[in-house]
């Protein structure tokens, strides 16, 4: 393994790559030597990413909830690593959760994540070269919290999916893992973190007293995608500053 370029020769597909964690994963994978296919819905975000990343990165504008996208992935035999990152969250007390929020989180965080990984797994099995699938989960896939009932439900589902897929796909030399970060400072969480009381709540739950940055998650993804993790499957790498150790 080339330690300077641990992903050299690999093609990495990243969903939700336009901003935040997905953007950092795409950039870090390209810097680690991979050919990167960055998927997002917003063309401007993809263009900005392409300008920063350079020739190693290709962009694909797509909606990850659509059947057409899933079919494209199933016929794409070039993908060595899937970073299944697209997802969202809405903070609502359980007695206030509306059907629109429930349906959105289940569709994007669970159904689409499953369908995307199923499609990529099928293409990996057919080409017989192995591969790696990395789900972006959350510390909320290991614990519970107020106003996050639906989000916790979806991320616990991803943690279960990771384990089951790892067992089933091991025979095909396909490794499946998750990365479970604590609160990450992104455009999605910026509004919450502007609230001093929320930021203090976050800091109080993290023993290392640091809010995660997207790059913290991206470094874990590069490791799990690389040959250095060749015997790592079915696990969840917690990038949570010790939050779930309490």
Can you walk through the features of this model?
- This protein is α/β, with parallel strands linked by helices.
- The chain has a single domain (11-186, 213-239), classed as NAD(P)-binding Rossmann-like Domain (Rossmann fold), CATH 3.40.50.720.
- Helices cover 43% and strands 15% of the residues.
- The protein is built from eight helices and seven strands; from the N terminus they run E-H-E-H-E-H-E-H-E-H-E-H-H-H-E.
- Strands 3-2-1-4-5-6-7 form a seven-stranded parallel sheet, with helices on both faces.
- The longest helix has 29 residues, at 99-127.
- It is globular, with a radius of gyration of 17 Å.
- The mean pLDDT is 95.
Q: What key phrases describe this protein's structure?
A:
single chain; 246 residues; alpha/beta; 7-stranded parallel β-sheet; 7 strands; 43% helix
